[in-house]
Each structure stands twice: as structure tokens, then as C-alpha cells.
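Notes from the 1:1 (GR / supervisor)

We went over the backlog. Supervisor wanted to see one worked example end to end before approving the batch request, so GR pasted a single chain during the call. The sequence is below; no edits were made to it. Supervisor asked that the structure be written out right there so they could see what the output format looks like.
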Amino acid sequence: MATNPMTQFEVYRIGPEIKIGTFDISFTNASLFMVISSIAILLIFNLSSKKNSILPNKLQLLAELSYSFVSKMISDTAGSKAKPYFSFIFSLFMFVLFCNMFGMIPYTFTVTSHIIVTFVLAAFIFIGVTIIGFVKHGFGYLKLFVPSGVPVVLLPLIVIIEIISYLSRPISLSVRLFANMMAGHTMMKVFGGFVISLGIVGGWLPLSFSVALTGLEILVAFLQAYVFAILTCIYLNDALNLHH
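Structure output shown during the call:
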């Protein structure tokens, strides 16, 4: 009997139940893989900085490439004013990337396949960027909703569209990551089930699809982390430079 492909997304408690009032804050498998991802990031960058040599080892090369990649991404999308926020963007990119990549390992859990995780990240970014915009420009930040060169007749409609577009940012940012990761892993599980059901003789075709899909999913895992980070940079650019 084929396994339900949705069971891989089930969150279950690890250890005792912990409640604060009506809130259940028990440690779960999702919590475990967020901790594992964070520890893995810290270990890699800690070990890579132990010996800074002219000829870098693999870990040092990985750390330097990651640093340069994110630094260039920030410069290209948000400019020099966004440099103080490098640590946050870098941490965000690496966390999402590692959570995505750990989810590719069999018998692990894909944290970013849950909308609550991606929405909390997106909501934090949205609130933070909005605060930065108002701190930087005061009520002048509201000019973001009034594009220049728009005829007066169309202005009320355009302002409403801009406000709706702005408020939908955390939804679009979170759903994009969640939907891609969930859909990809579901398809991998479905094709894996076909391989088991059809056996050696008839399973070669779904097995070929599974191998190809795994490679594609690894690429998607990286691209979704990149898209999540670069959209954060674009939102930060609006707050810092007030392009309208």
C-alpha cells in the first residue's frame, strides 16, 4: 500500500508537552530541524574562519563565496545604504537555504514546507522594513503609494492598488516559498511510491523521473532561498531610497 505523500509534512511533538496558558510551545520535529540548520550554519562558518589562508580550504571557500554572493546581491538591489543590514540578509538567506537543503535528505523534515514558518519570516521582514521606512522618511514614506507622473484622475485608483500590493507582500513572499517546497516534495514522494508499487520491472520510468526531480528540487531549494532574500532586499530598497 502506497504511503500518503502528505504524511511527510506532519508536525509531531518531541519530548514532554509544554504549555503557556493556551499556547503549546512544545519542542517538535520542525523545531529540531530549525535548530539543526542553525547549528550547521554556525559550525561551517566557525570552522571556516579558524584558518584564513591565501589558499582557502573547501569550508573557507564556501564561506567566502556565500559572503560575496549575498554582498553583491545587496549592492545590486538595495545599494550602499543597505550595507548595515547585511548580517540580517545573510542570516536569512543561509537559514532558508539550509532548511531547504536539509529537507532533501531522506527521513528529515522540510521546515519551509509549512506556511506558518514562512509567513512568520515574511511578516517579520514586512514589519521591519515598514518601521525602517517610517524612521528614515517619517510620513514622507507614504509617498511610496503615490507614483510620480500619474494623472490626477487615476491617482485614487493607483493609490488603492499600491496599498493592496504593499500589504500583500508578506502573503506573496511566504506562499511562494511554502508552495514551491511543498509541491516539490509531494511530487518526489508520489514518484517514489510509484517505484515501490511497480517494482523492478515497471519502476524504472518513475525512478528516472525521481532522480531528475531530485536534481530539480535541489536547484529549486537554492533558487527559493535566493528569491526570498532578494525580494527582502527589494523591499528594503523601497524603504531606504523611497523609489516611487
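Supervisor's comment: The longest helix spans residues 204-241.
Batch request approved.
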